[in-house]
């Protein structure tokens, strides 16, 4: 008889790996002990234990009352100093990147799936061009062309004096002023490239551990067969899902080149138009050659963006050197040639009016609208093939969010251009027909600002309806609350507060309707703004002066209000973003939206904020695989809020042998309520049911007072239910002997304070079952000798 059979079965070591949610939770708070030790990791993300629990695997008998707690702290991946609030300026890029992951469920990666990805990447490319064009509008048109070209405006700005034609200096010619001003948008493009490359190196460049299962690894008793090829796994379980180095490098090169080409077109195009009008054959020929080279390079950029998407079936560490090494330098070379061409002496060239940027912004807005419409058609086609009732907006969530990204980009760029024009013009108002120092930004930007108050008025009705519905629901919930607690002395104020919190928590489920309404209204109002600007050629107040004084006053008020809202909103946006990174309470309020956005890899836009999950998920899966492989112990990965999504994603990455030694405990989890509805291809019913079947056991706790977490809605015959809830919140209604002080309504926080948490965690450990202690090599040889003897 072997030595292993002589020893009685042992539960072995048990570990609870805690993963926090949004809010910058510290490991001291997670472990409830001021004395902690970092087990593995670095200052960015690490695993911690209480100091007394270090080396607990060597003495499992000391922890028979419960598992050893271990905390994975990833808060430094998404929070830090206030300078990270500048990432919020990249919000349109992050939002369009979200649209890529909102694709409806598809049975296979067919033409429609690939077309969906191509369309989102093209919309993302248009946002880069839009941002660069806005920088060109400010630096080249408003400053170098309009203000520096007007003696009165340049005279009021001492730092523009050397550019003024009145000075007669070398830089006074329009082409040379444009070439000098091109440094600003070119520097912006270079900064975006630098930030994308730097954040990749800091957050996402760590190659995941290749968790391959050895052929002779014994499978746990009763475990199903291991997963098939990587192509057959759920998307989040594929080896290359959390390592998109190749695609990000390609997109970074293409978007950087697109930015440089946009600046080159603005500089060289102005000079080429003058040469054609001046009748200079040699210069005009050079201009045509330059424009042809710009068009050819632009076509290559579009081809690079369209040609290749994500490769997830394997860990792809290759880099397309032909793209990354030559495309941005080629575009930069064309920019230098355009600046040199524009700086060539043209004594008769004078700047007047504004640069012809109206057509550029109009084409961009129309192109974005058409791409969104085609994307909606593709998404609707995918949804009809595999309909899932809880999918957001019947599969149109991705196009709606892509439309919001375009709207955000338009509002931000238009707001900056209008604010700079107002600053340069002093007390006057550019474009309003009165005396002014500068012509102002393109008319389309003024029309876009004018539709913002109209959009807010349209939102007033549904918001009012939501408020009224919430109040009615709270009144209906009052009797249910008192029936649930059956208090001896009902307190109307206490009842109303609990009912109001439960009614308010349901508002999260109304977000898809609001997003759909805003996106649809934005599409139609944006189309109206393009038509109005092209048809009239004037700002709304002047374009509608023939419609009567009342209509004209409304148009002027809408334009002024929209312009003011853009400026104030931009300031508040940056202020709130900075506060969210520095203040824990503000981060818990705002952070869930930001963390949902930066959870996903950069698949559509390389200049989006970095994906923290490309570091966190491999960290968690590597830790679980290493611990279960070395101890053969039981492991419960316990995730709260956004941490539950990270935990589920990490479990998907585990080999089958390790996955069946792991139990999953989630609480306050948005995994179905938010992710399952908005990202059905990755967290829909199919993937979640597959996760339930593959993991050893899973329990999800939720409350009716939680505005973020909810049930996962998995009900499969023959397996225990996943959901446990709604949990009582508050635990007691009023004062009792056991709870002499009033109990708070916890909502989304402190799930571990509920007694049900410890009960369910112990049940998961029991369902994992006892394991035999691992034998050392010496013990195995001794046992083999005794058995043969």
TrEMBL record:
Q: Report residue spans for region: Disordered.
A: 207-235, 770-789
Record's superkingdom? Answer: Bacteria
Low complexity: bias regions: 218-234
Chain ranges passing through the membrane: 85-103, 115-135, 178-195, 253-272, 284-305, 326-344, 359-383, 395-417, 445-468, 514-537, 557-577
Which keywords appear in this protein's UniProt record, sorted alphabetically? Answer: Membrane, Transmembrane, Transmembrane helix
The record ties this protein, via SUPFAM superfamilies, to: alpha/beta-Hydrolases (SSF53474)
Q: How is this protein named in the record?
A: Integral membrane protein
């Amino acid at each position: 008889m072997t030595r292993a059979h002589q020893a009685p079965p042992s539960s072995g070591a048990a570990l609870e790996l805690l993963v926090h949610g949004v809010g910058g939770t510290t490991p001291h708070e997670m472990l409830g002990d001021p004395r902690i030790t970092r087990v593995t990791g670095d200052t960015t993300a690490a695993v911690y234990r209480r100091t007394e629990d270090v080396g607990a695997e060597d003495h499992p008998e000391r922890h028979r009352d419960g598992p050893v707690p271990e905390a994975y702290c990833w808060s430094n991946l998404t929070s830090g100093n206030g300078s990270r609030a500048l990432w919020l300026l990249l919000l349109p890029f992050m939002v369009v990147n979200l649209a890529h992951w909102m694709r409806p469920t598809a049975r296979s990666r067919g033409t429609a799936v690939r077309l969906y990805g191509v369309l989102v990447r093209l919309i993302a490319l248009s946002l880069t061009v839009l941002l660069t064009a806005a920088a060109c509008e400010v630096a080249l048109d408003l400053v170098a062309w309009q203000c520096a070209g007007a003696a009165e405006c340049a005279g009021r700005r001492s730092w523009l004096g050397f550019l003024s034609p009145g000075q007669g200096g070398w830089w006074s010619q329009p082409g040379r002023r444009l070439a000098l001003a091109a440094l600003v948008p070119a520097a912006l493009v270079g900064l975006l490239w630098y930030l994308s490359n730097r954040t990749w190196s800091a957050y996402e460049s760590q190659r995941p551990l290749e968790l391959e299962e050895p052929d002779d690894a014994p499978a746990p008793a009763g475990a199903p067969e291991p997963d098939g090829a990587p192509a057959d796994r759920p998307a989040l379980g594929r080896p290359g899902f959390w390592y998109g180095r190749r695609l990000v490098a390609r997109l970074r090169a293409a978007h950087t080149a697109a930015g440089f080409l946009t600046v080159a077109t603005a500089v060289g195009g102005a000079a080429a138009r003058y040469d054609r009008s001046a009748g200079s054959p040699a210069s005009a020929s050079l201009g045509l050659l330059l424009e042809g080279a710009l068009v050819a390079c632009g076509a290559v950029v579009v081809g690079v963006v369209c040609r290749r998407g994500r490769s997830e079936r394997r860990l792809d560490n290759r880099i397309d050197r032909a793209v990354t090494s030559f495309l941005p330098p080629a575009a930069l070379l064309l920019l230098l040639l355009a600046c040199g061409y524009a700086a060539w002496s043209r004594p008769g060239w004078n700047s007047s009016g504004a640069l012809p940027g109206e057509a550029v912004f109009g084409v961009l807005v129309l192109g974005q609208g058409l791409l969104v419409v085609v994307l909606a058609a593709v998404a609707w086609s995918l949804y009809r093939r595999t309909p899932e009732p809880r999918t957001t907006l019947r599969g149109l969530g991705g196009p709606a969010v892509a439309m919001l990204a375009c709207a955000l980009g338009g509002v931000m760029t238009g707001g900056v251009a209008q604010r700079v024009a107002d600053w340069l013009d002093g007390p006057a108002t550019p474009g309003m027909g009165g005396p002014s120092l500068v012509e102002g930004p393109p008319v389309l930007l003024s029309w876009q600002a004018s539709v913002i108050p109209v959009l807010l008025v349209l939102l007033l009705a549904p918001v009012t309806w939501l408020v009224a519905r919430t109040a009615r629901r709270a009144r209906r919930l009052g009797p249910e609350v008192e029936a649930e607690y059956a208090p001896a002395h009902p307190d109307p104020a206490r009842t109303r507060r609990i009912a109001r919190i439960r009614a308010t928590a349901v508002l999260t489920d109304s977000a898809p309707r609001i997003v759909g309404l805003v996106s649809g209204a934005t599409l139609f109002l944006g189309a109206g703004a393009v038509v109005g600007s092209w048809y009239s050629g004037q700002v709304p107040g002047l374009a509608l002066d023939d419609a009567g004084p009342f209509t004209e006053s409304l148009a002027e008020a809408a334009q002024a209000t929209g312009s003011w809202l853009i400026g104030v909103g931009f300031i508040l946006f940056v202020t709130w973003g900075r506060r969210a990174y520095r203040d824990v309470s503000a981060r818990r309020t705002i952070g869930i939206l930001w963390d949902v956005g930066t959870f996903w890899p950069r698949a559509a836009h390389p200049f989006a904020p970095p994906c923290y999950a490309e570091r966190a998920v491999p960290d968690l899966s590597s830790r679980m695989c290493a611990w279960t492989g070395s101890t053969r112990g039981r492991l419960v990965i316990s995730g709260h809020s956004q941490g539950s999504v990270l935990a589920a994603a990490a479990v998907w990455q585990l080999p089958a042998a390790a996955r069946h030694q792991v139990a999953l405990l989630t609480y306050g989890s948005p995994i179905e309520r938010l992710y399952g509805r908005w990202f059905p291809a990755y967290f829909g019913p199919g993937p979640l049911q597959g996760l339930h079947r593959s993991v050893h056991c899973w329990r999800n706790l939720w409350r009716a007072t939680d505005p973020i977490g909810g049930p996962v809605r998995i009900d499969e015959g023959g397996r225990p239910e996943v959901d446990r809830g709604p949990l009582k919140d508050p635990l007691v209604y009023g004062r009792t002997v056991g709870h002499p002080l009033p109990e708070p309504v916890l909502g989304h926080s402190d799930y571990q304070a509920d007694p049900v948490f410890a009960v369910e965690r112990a049940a998961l450990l029991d369902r994992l079952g006892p394991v035999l202690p691992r034998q050392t090599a010496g013990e195995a040889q001794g046992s083999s000798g005794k058995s043969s003897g």
